[in-house]
């Protein structure tokens, strides 16, 4: 304000010293100057419209400043624009090779574990107390099975960054995997003491408590995580699952119903309704989830399953056929279709659906075993329910045998083969000594 007053006062003084034409020239000059500054102000305001434009302006103004490139790289990393972030981290390091944080962040963006380890170790050579580099290197070593060194790195990360909650979770997780539960519990408690506002730490401790059989305390920490961060959907889902596993379905539903409508929340809520026999509510929730993610086949499959269970088999069949038309290799679709046909008494069509699933030739031997087992069961049931298939035990035995080859330890499969043996003997006794199995 004072600057503006001085300019106006000086302008008036000059006008009194010059003639009429001089005053006109001064006025025009002043107007041009005002226009120039106004244009510059508009340009500068555009720079402040977003964080990115502000960072870009900094790079244009100070292209040889490492800190400017580092800050812009952090922004790009947060936006998921990793190739650009890598370029600006590398530029920052060219300008200032001893930038430990740039080395650490570069390590988090590389896909090569060896290269990432190199960056983390270089960062630690520059700054031995860089708690983020210690944390990242510790996690990397943990994933490589180098647990002793990983433990030391994570301990150092906590020592030099006691308010860094993720380090407590990682170290406690390592101890839990090693069955060192008392030490893991101690680390979690220490983390919560130093980072009481970390919702993730409370949630992770809740998971640990569930795994160690302390569901009551787990519920308390899930609730604390939600209090600290009302949008902590993971903690909400975990709490809902815990309540559901404790047969507290009303409480589980109450928690799930409070959650913003997101697919990762809607699907467990739909499962809760389905498992408690509330099919209409389950259908409503699954339809809402399907509207949010129309290409998610698992949601549509769950929706079709609820329809079938609710007795709306025509709708379920139509929906399942639509899914198969989009993905001919959808084994679960064929299995659901088989169940729908069985429910309607169409056993031949049910068998045909299972045969199509088997022809998909899934690579997982366990899934193959389940399919052969299902077909064996289907043939057995058809022998009992439909006289047209009486005596066709050889086909059933073939599929049970294939299933046993893929899953030799299955007690259920062995029990079914024993039942098949009894049925064959019973049928042989009814038909006399001339009965022989087909080969």
From TrEMBL:
SMART domains, per database record: HAT, TPR
InterPro entries hit by this protein: HAT, TMTC_O-mannosyl-trnsfr, TPR-like_helical_dom_sf, TPR_rpt
Biological-process GO terms, alphabetical: protein O-linked glycosylation via mannose; RNA processing
Entry annotated with the keyword Cytoplasm: no
TPR repeat segments: 66-99, 131-164, 199-232, 263-296, 331-364
SUPFAM superfamilies for this protein: TPR-like
Transmembrane segments: 21-39
UniProt-listed Gene3D superfamilies: Tetratricopeptide repeat domain
The protein's name: Transmembrane and TPR repeat-containing protein 1
């Amino acid at each position: 304000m004072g600057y503006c007053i001085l300019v106006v006062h000086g302008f008036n003084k000059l006008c009194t010293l010059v003639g009429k034409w001089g005053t006109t020239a001064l006025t025009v000059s002043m107007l041009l100057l005002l226009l120039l500054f106004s244009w510059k102000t508009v340009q500068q305001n555009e720079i402040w419209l977003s964080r990115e434009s502000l960072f870009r302006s900094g790079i244009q103004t100070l292209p040889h400043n490492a800190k400017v490139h580092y800050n812009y790289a952090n922004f790009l990393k947060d936006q998921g624009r990793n190739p650009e972030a890598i370029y600006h981290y590398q530029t920052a390091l060219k300008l200032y090779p001893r930038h430990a944080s740039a080395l650490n962040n570069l390590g988090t963006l590389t896909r090569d574990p060896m290269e990432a380890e190199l960056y983390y170790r270089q960062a630690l050579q520059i700054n031995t107390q860089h708690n983020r580099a210690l944390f990242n290197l510790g996690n990397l070593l943990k994933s490589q099975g180098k647990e002793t060194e990983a433990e030391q790195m994570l301990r150092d990360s906590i020592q030099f960054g006691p308010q860094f909650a993720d380090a407590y979770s990682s170290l406690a997780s390592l101890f839990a995997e090693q069955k060192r539960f008392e030490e893991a519990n101690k680390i979690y408690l220490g983390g919560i003491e130093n980072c009481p506002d970390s919702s993730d730490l409370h949630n992770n401790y809740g998971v640990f408590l569930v795994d160690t059989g302390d569901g009551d305390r787990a519920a308390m920490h899930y609730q604390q995580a939600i209090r600290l961060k009302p949008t902590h959907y993971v903690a909400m889902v975990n709490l809902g699952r815990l309540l559901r596993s404790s047969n507290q379905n009303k409480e589980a539903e109450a928690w799930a119903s409070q959650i913003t409508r997101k697919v990762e929340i809607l699907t467990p809520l739909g499962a809760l309704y389905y498992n408690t026999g509330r099919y209409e509510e389950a259908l409503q929730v699954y339809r809402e989830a399907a509207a949010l993610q129309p290409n998610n086949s698992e949601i549509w499959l769950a929706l079709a399953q609820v329809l079938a269970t609710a007795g709306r088999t025509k709708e379920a069949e139509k929906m399942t056929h639509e899914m198969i038309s989009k993905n001919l290799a959808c084994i679960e679709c064929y299995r659901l279709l088989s169940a729908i046909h069985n429910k309607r008494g169409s056993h031949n069509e049910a068998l045909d659906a299972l045969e199509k699933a088997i022809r998909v030739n899934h690579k997982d031997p366990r899934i193959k075993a389940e399919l052969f087992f299902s077909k064996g069961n289907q043939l057995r049931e058809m022998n009992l329910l439909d006289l047209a298939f009486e005596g066709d035990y050889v086909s059933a035995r073939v599929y049970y045998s294939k299933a046993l080859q893929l899953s030799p330890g299955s007690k259920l499969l062995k029990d079914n083969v024993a039942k098949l043996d009894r049925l064959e003997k019973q049928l042989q006794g009814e038909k006399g000594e001339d009965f022989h199995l087909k080969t």
